[in-house]
Request: fold
Amino acid sequence: MKSHFTDIDSAIKSYVADQILLEKSKELEEVIFFSSYTIQFDVFKKATQKLKKTLRRKLPCTYDVWERDALFIIEKYQLNVTYGSERYTYLLQALLKAQIKINEAVMTHFIGLCKKAHSFEYLESRAEEIYKLLFDDSSNENMDKSSSPF
Reply:
């Protein structure tokens, strides 16, 4: 993103890096087990493709969905951006581009985690944590760990 709004470009670059780092720092189990119950990977992939299609449109489109994120970015990075201004429109469009980058990084990371999850050595090293995620609930808090099937 090269523009005359360098402060916005810099804030978006930091935001993207922070979001990608946050996603990549999640434990494998957290990403795979919980995401598998909430959303299928294909849905996420299609949503990202839809974002790209929105970005390619030549017609003016509304970026209302990014307004909450825009307020977050404005406050976090102390940007001088007025609602409805050219800078604000640019920020909203930059957030759309940022979400595409974040989604693509998350998808790449997720695929890598799925491959890693099929490694027997990895499963052995994380057996206790995996067991807790799959079977532990409040009634099993005092369960003897030696009875773990792993």
About this structure: Confidence is low (pLDDT under 50) at residues 138-150. The helical segments are 6-24, 28-38, 41-56, 67-76, 86-117, 120-125, 127-135.
